[in-house]
Amino acid sequence: MTIDTGKVYRLEDYRTSDYAIRATHLVFRLDPRHARVTATLSVERREDTAFDAPLVLDGDGLKLLSVALDGTRLTAQDYSAAPDQLTVARLPKGPFTLVIETELAPEANSALMGLYLSNGVYCTQCEAEGFRRITYFLDRPDVMSVYTVRIEAPKATAPILLSNGNPVESGDLEDGWHYAVWHDPHLKPSYLFALVAGDLGKITDGFTTRSGRAVELGIYVEKGKEARAAYAMDALKRSMHWDEDVFGLEYDLDVFNIVAVSDFNMGAMENKGLNIFNDKYVLADEETATDADFANIEAIIAHEYFHNWTGNRITCRDWFQLCLKEGLTVFRDHEFSADMRSRAVKRIAEVRTLKSLQFPEDQGPLAHPVRPRRYREINNFYTATVYEKGSEVVRMIRTILGADTFRRGMDLYFERHDGDAATIEDFLKVFEDVSGRDLSQFALWYHQAGTPHVSISAAYDEARGELTLDIEQSVPPTPSESRKRLMHIPLAIGLVGQDGSDLEAVSADGSFVDGLIHLKKRRQVVRFAGLSQRPAVSLNRGFSAPVTLASEQSVDDRLFLARHDSDLVARWQALNGLLCDYLIETSKTPVRQSNMTGRLAEVLGAIAADDTLEPAYRALALTPPSEADVAREIGSNIDPDAIHDARDALIDAIAAANRQSFEALYGELEDTDSFSSDAQSAGRRALRNVLLDYASAARRTPELAAGQYCQATNMTERAAALAVLAHRFASEPLSVSALADFETRHADNPLVLDKWFQIQATIPGDAALSRVEKLTRHGAFSIGNPNRVRSLIGTFASSNQTGFHRADGAGYRFFADRIIEVEKRNPQVAARLATAFRSWRSLEPGRQELARVELARIVAVPGLSTDLKDIVDRTLA
Ligand code: B3K
Ligand code: ZN
Known about the structure:
This protein is about 40% helix and about 20% strand. By secondary structure, the protein is α+β, with helices and mostly antiparallel strands. Among the domains are: about 200 residues, Sandwich (Immunoglobulin-like), CATH 2.60.40; about 130 residues, Orthogonal Bundle (Neutral Protease, domain 2); about 90 residues, Aminopeptidase N, middle-beta domain (Immunoglobulin-like, Sandwich); about 130 residues, Zincin-like fold. It has an eight-stranded mixed sheet with strand order 6-5-9-3-2-12-15-14, with no helix packed on it. Strands 17-18-19-21-20 form a five-stranded mixed sheet, covered by helices on one side. Helix 4 packs across helix 10, helix 5 crosses helix 6 and helix 16 runs parallel beside helix 18. It starts with 8 loop residues before the first strand and ends with a helix. The structure holds (3S)-3,7-diaminoheptanoic acid (B3K) and zinc ion. Zinc ion binds next to helix 3.
């Protein structure tokens, strides 16, 4: 664990390395406690490096065995070595070879960075700076090298030996050992290095690229789980086709392997030719995975595969440019999923994720630009801002330039920068070059933190048939950026006539083109002329810009748009905004029933019954904003209990008003066909599960959910029924027995038990904490496994508003204790957990103080890791 030193890395301090490492040859002799790594580096001084410049290599907790320069073993006078650095001075002027031997203990590596053991399988994670836990190296993305890797291991325990690139040789050694050699011809940075060795099951397939390269595809999983990798394989082949069709990008090696491991800090990793995955994002079948799991697997398989071009062929110059690969690759996986599924439904899901994860980040103490300018721990910048807002920025470029010009820009990017370690400036430049536009104001989306706010007021002049929109932008201050510059905000707008169709919108001064207003000034007034009727204004269509919006629209207009807007994303936004405003209102002043309650219940009833809308859309529309969504919109002095009560009351009112029709539809949606994981079938199940919740709320009895639980033929139905039972009827025998049944039924499947942990971690109310505490002592729980920790402890803190935010602070205390406990083994996971405190200043004063005390307690722990210290310091600042 790296203990915090307070060191800050700054973008403006970037300079190229003094040396280049042209080729890297690694030999691994694997052993759980005494693995040996021999690294042979072909090093060259860069042209403008001084002759006496030492070679300073990064390390992290390394044990050095020996160093040799051009065949001569160096003595301690020739170099200085510490666990975190190796410096060699007095180097030849020309190219030289350095051989470094290190010893590792993969078994003791609980941080899951570098080389570690997961369930007996050797695997690696190097991004961002894990390679330096394997050997001393210039561990930075702009040092790119050609790798050859030889792995030696006992055949019995590690029959499978994998690394990046293509396999070149393998054979037997003495004493039951064997070896394999892999060679990756493509230059790559050290963070993309990977190795896997173990006893794994495999499924294989093949893909021929459009230029005729035959690629062997392999997915490796724990033995016995092979059948559950079939969906991932199918998703991989679809991703490979899609990248050829949509971006013209082909795969470039003879093999592509994916390995699923059970101990993994995040979702997956795009190592060249050898993607390593959290098994949660590979393994699926109808009995064990929900529709959401299938969709995630499809998206993440695609994401990692797409990195082969956006990330690997063109990588980042330095870690400040992280969004260059992440934001762009998220955009690409979003587009892929939109093409595989329903575009509107996918877009709404993206908007929900952005608002629930990125907006709170951008509006709190952890706010940072999409391209940050400083960091203490880079692993803390794999954030919703870099990924999700980063993707929105790419989407806006496409919106502004149009799809064709955008594609030409992407083509130019690949042509110009293939093999480069590039920057955001390089990326923007290709779009300026193909479009002839100046994107300097637009570039602020990369450089300026905070969610821009746009307020719009509309005035209609009946006599002149003219609509005037008065639009203003502002960007709220964020940490260390108090003054903001004006942004270029592409705002898609539509004018909806009384019959629901779009009116032709012509602005008098040409400031409205192709459905877009380019908001660039603080205030802009746009006039639409020639209207024969007063339109309802559909705002931020398709969520064209990631902004918060305030508009003085009447409830009638909003309800009208919620039913008739031709843009389904804006239609959903109109409805969701109404529901959210209602919840804000009623959390402050509780009402049992009002005129508005009735109108909302009625519109939801109409949407549920509208079979011109696809079921997946109806399911989204019928789901009221979450408690956290409402809290975010309120923004200050938050009382989670009041929000919970308001939301419960709204659901009850909607359920009561639509009781018969919802139950009837619930019955009609029952699936009698055999299971399909496709988007249509998943949409029907999603709608049916939302209706189950309403129907159970109306009946106030658990029978319906218990019935669905027992008859379920797939995990989506079963888990949803269990959630309704546990959340609505926690103490009823039917709920208790269903939870017990689920536990026994899936006792041997940790990934499914994670759902069981999650469902229980989100049961609202004061009893939540003791329930979660008890579950941390359950035999299937393990504080060392990131998936278990996230399902139980992470879910409790991020998704149980009343349980975590108990008014007595016991939730915060428990959570802080767990963070401290996890940090000792795995600082990265602990730091990620701690971000659940990020909105503590928005709470009412009592809870705020209790949260602050716990954050201060964490910060006072001696010898804190950089990961956790950085997050907590910024959260408290
Ligand atoms: N690039 C990895 C994330 C690495 C996280 C390092 N802390 C997965 C991805 O975004 O595709
Ligand atoms: Zn990624």
